[in-house]
Design goal:
Elements (H helix, E strand, L loop, with lengths): L1 H11 L2 H4 L13 H13 L5 H14 L4 H6 L12 E2 L2 E2 H17 L4 H10 L3 H11 L7 H6 L10 H11 L23 H9 L10 H12 L9 H13 L8
Antiparallel strand pairs: 1-2
Helix pairs in contact: 1-13, 3-10, 7-8, 11-13
Length: 254
């Protein structure tokens, strides 16, 4: 099994992978603040059909004149040109709540996303710490769209997109950019969605039926048997196993 998975990692963890994956937005920019803001927004919107959300993100960053950090610093709570923004059940009000929260983080609290996550890491409950920060910035009750962007860890979900974002930021490879260093890559958790869950079960790597946080822990621990120093590299192998079995195109992210 290790030999099979390692071959798939070698095949799929290449620069060619980047163009059809949301990680492309982590490679678009040079400035650290631009990279982490664009990557964070891209990860949050990475659900549904890849083509659909990548096109939506392309349009959004083009609207920001490909200066997401500058756009966030100068965001005033509403933008008339974005009032008709919608992606599935995420609407303009949800986007504005996200942008307002990032403005508060960078312009008012004088923090960065790296510092926010690092502060949560020090408290040993990083994902909960980070999501609580974003909910604390809301003026009103949270909407369905905002709740989807920011899943609550205490509800036991897999936190797929947050773990994917952390993979981008912590690991250093041809695909992942390794921008942050406050935690080690062997502390990362596998980004688990329906696709990865189904492939893992078909390979006998995951026994639980639910795609929840307990399954994330179970699968990550199993993958550590193959590489204790870098278990989430097998995210590429599980992706590849699904592509080899079912289709020649990239699956949707859930």
């Amino acid at each position: 099994m290790k030999e099979y998975l390692d071959k798939l990692v070698k095949k799929y963890e290449t620069k060619e992978f980047i163009k059809d994956d949301p990680v492309r937005f982590a490679h678009r920019y040079k400035n650290k603040n631009d990279i982490e803001i664009a990557s964070f927004i891209a990860a949050l919107f990475a659900f549904g059909r890849r083509e659909a959300f990548i096109n939506k993100l392309d349009n959004l960053f083009d609207f920001m004149q490909n200066e997401p950090y500058n756009f966030i610093l100068n965001f005033k709570g509403h933008n008339e040109a974005l009032k008709d923004f919608v992606y599935r059940f995420v609407k303009s009000e949800d986007l504005f709540s996200l942008l307002n929260a990032l403005n508060k983080l960078y312009a008012h609290d004088n923090l960065s996303l790296e510092e926010l996550f690092a502060n949560g890491y020090k408290k040993t409950d990083m994902l909960n710490y980070v999501t609580k920060y974003f909910y604390s910035t809301l003026n009103n009750t949270s909407t369905q769209g905002f709740c989807h962007l920011f899943a609550r860890p205490e509800k036991g979900g897999a936190m797929k997109r947050m773990n994917m974002f952390l993979r981008w930021m912590i690991r250093k490879s041809e695909v992942d950019i390794g921008l942050w260093n406050f935690m080690k890559k062997n502390e990362l958790l596998i980004p688990l969605d329906v696709h990865v869950g189904n492939v893992s079960r078909s390979l006998g790597l995951l026994k639980r039926n639910a795609n929840d946080f307990k399954s994330v822990i179970e699968l990550t621990q199993k993958l550590k048997e193959f590489d204790p120093n870098d278990p989430v590299k097998y995210d590429f192998a599980l992706f590849g196993a699904g592509v080899n079995k079912n289709t020649n195109t990239a699956p949707a992210l859930i």
